[in-house]
Amino acid sequence: MAGFNVHSILVTGANRGIGFELVKQFLERSNPPEKIFATCRNPDGAQELKNLASRHPNLVIVQLEVTDPVSIKAAAARVEGLLKGSGLHLLINNAGIVKKTTLEAETPEYMSQVYATNTTGPLVISQAFLPLLKKAVQESAQKGLSCSKAAIINMSSEAGSIKNVLAWEFGQVVSYRCSKAPMTVDEGVRGIINTLSKLSEKETGAFINWEGNLLPW
Ligand SMILES: NC(=O)c1ccc[n+]([C@@H]2O[C@H](COP(=O)([O-])OP(=O)(O)OC[C@H]3O[C@@H](n4cnc5c(N)ncnc54)[C@H](OP(=O)(O)O)[C@@H]3O)[C@@H](O)[C@H]2O)c1
Fold first, then answer.
1. 216 found inside a domain
2. What is the pTM (predicted TM-score) of this model?
C-alpha cells in the first residue's frame, strides 16, 4: 500500500460495524488522513466514535441521516467549512440496512425504506459532496484516478449480484453460514483498505469484492 495517501475521507454509518472499523483502521495507518469525517445519525449516542475522537484530533463526528436531504446538505456545509477551502478526497457510502424477509413476506414499505437508505441516499450524498470531490481533483497533481486523488466508493454486497444470486435464502441455514464465515470485521476491513489502495480509473463503475476481485453484476 505504499503511496496510498488519502488526505481526507468521509465514511457514512461510521458509529458501528464496517464503517467504524474503516475509521479506526484509517486512523491507525502510519500516514493517517489529515481529516476523517465519521458520520452517523445520532452523534450523542456514538460512544465508541467519541472515545476515538478524544484520542485523534483529525477525527470529526458529523451528524448525517442518509435518507434526509436536509441532514445531508447540512453535513456537506459543515464538512466544507472544516476543510477550509480544501477538497474531500474519498467519500465512502457505507451506511446500509437489510430487512430479513422472503419473497413472500417482502412489502412495499420495506422496499421503499431499503431503497431510500441503500440506493437513493448514496446518490443524494454523492451529489452533495461532488463539488468537494472535484476540488480535491483540482488540488491533486496525480495522473489518473485513485482513492488518494478523489473517489466515491459505494459499499455494495455480493447479494446484489444478479448472476451470483448469493444469499437468496438469506436468513436460513444459519449454522452452516456461521461455520463457513470465520472472518472478523477487522480482517474484512483490512481487505477493503488494501483494495481501495489499488483502485484506478480502470475500476470506475466496477463491482468489486473486499478482496479486489471483480464480481458479475
Ligand atoms: N457485514 C457484512 O457482511 C456485509 C457484507 C456485504 C456488504 N455489506 C455492506 O457494508 C455496509 C456496512 O455494513 P455493516 O455490516 O457494517 O452494517 P451495520 O453493522 O448494520 O451498520 C450499518 C450502519 O449504517 C448506519 N445506517 C443505517 N441506516 C442509516 C440511515 N438512514 N442514516 C444514516 N446511517 C444509517 C447504521 O447507523 P445506526 O447505528 O444509526 O443504525 C450503522 O452505522 C452496508 O452498506 C452493507 O450493506 C456488509
1. no
2. 0.92
User: Burial level of 162, CB count in 10 A (0-12/13-18/19+)?
Assistant: exposed
Residue with cell 478523489: 150
> What is d(CA 176, CA 84) in angstroms, rounded to the nearest whole number?
51
Residue 161 domain flag: yes
What is the 3-class SS of 164-193, one letter each residue? CCCCCCCCCCHHHHHHHCCCCHHHHHHHHH
Query: Residue 214 carries which DSSP code?
Result: B
Position in ligand 1 atom list of the atom nearest CA 96: 45
Q: CATH number of the domain that 51 lies in?
A: 3.40.50.720
Task: Give the C-alpha separation, 156 to 8, whole Å.
Answer: 22
Pocket of ligand 1, beta carbon within 6 A: 13, 15-19, 40-42, 65-67, 94-97, 117, 155, 157
What is the domain extent for residue 195?
A: 8-203
- The tally of domains found in the chain comes to 1
Residue-wise pLDDT for 57-112, tens only, equals 999 999 999 999 999 999 999 999 999 999 999 999 999 998 777 777 878 898 89
The three cell numbers locating residue 49 = 466514535
User: 139: CA distance to ligand 1 center in Å?
Assistant: 31
